[in-house]
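Schema walk-through. Below, the input block comes first and the output block second. Nothing else is stored per chain. Lengths vary across the set, and this one has 371 residues.
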Amino acid sequence: MRKYIRNILLISLVINSSVCFSQDWSGNSRIRVESNQKGSELNAANRSRLGIKWSGDKWSMNMIGNYYYKFQDAAKDLNNIGTASVYEASISTSLPFGMTLSAGRMALNYGDGRIIGNDNWGNNGRTHDGLVIRYEYEDLLKIDVGTDAIGLESLNEDHTKDWAYVYLSRKGDNFNLDGAYLIVNAKNTMGIALDYIMDSKLDLGFDYWNQTWYETAFEKNMDESASLMAISINYPLNEKTNVGGGMDMFSEKNGGTWDASWGDYHQFNGAMDVAEKFLQEEISPEEFEVIGAWNDIYFNLSYDLNNWGLVGLAYHMISADDEELGGNEIDISLTNTLNDHINYGFGYSMFTPNNDSDGSSWMYLQISATP
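--- output ---
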């Protein structure tokens, strides 16, 4: 894999010195402090990214470096040099018939990131090494076909090697339809996501995704699967106030558990995610899976405070096959953009279990700067 990334960098230098091009720099840095009441822990970290992009008439190259520095880990004051990595290193070129080919390390993200996401909330993010061919017809239709870089070893074990996907997006005057088929290490995910706007106000969303494990379904003649169905609604009461709600329903068959190792759990504005913060850390911290079937019914409210930012309030009612996993959660968030270069966010969550066990709370403060 090191040779793979190195070759991309060398190609970029050759084109840089011999071809007419335009150049653009990008960068951002953020500091996030998190506090977990249940463990009385305080964590603080900095993530910085610096990127450069070259582009010509029918080609472009993109390189982004990621630097992650953790200077507070619970009760320990850390003094280390941090971790530097190549976040993205890719080349794109135009092909006939409205197609584009991209190759290298890419941060793939589609729709809300629930199925294929770049985990922007994380300090290292999520990228994949491979090829993506895109066909685009005006602003109405996009089709992406991607596959892994066969025979290449990843620099990071979190970069899953054996994968391929097809993603389709169709836009209309008042709707957007996404469909995908993703296969990762003999496990496939397929489904659709529909977003429909009525009378330019009422926003209705519907998702249905199903996962099947090839190894158990065919080799052991056992239909092991998991599914996710999501319904959402959002309505603007006026220019400043929005109300909404929805329901996420996870189900399983023959022991199948929902695998979201390619998607983003952070559907709650970066607050305490049930799937990751609660279910995984409490039950199975080593695996990217949700145990059994569970539902989340939620209601949310947002209000624009003008110069003070956007404040959000959400209430979650969570039920699960295992009663110990159910409970109620309140999320409060505030996001604001101070100027063209600085924005910040604040979030607080409080979870109360249905049983008599102790609850937990989680809080974060994040400041981001862009040159």
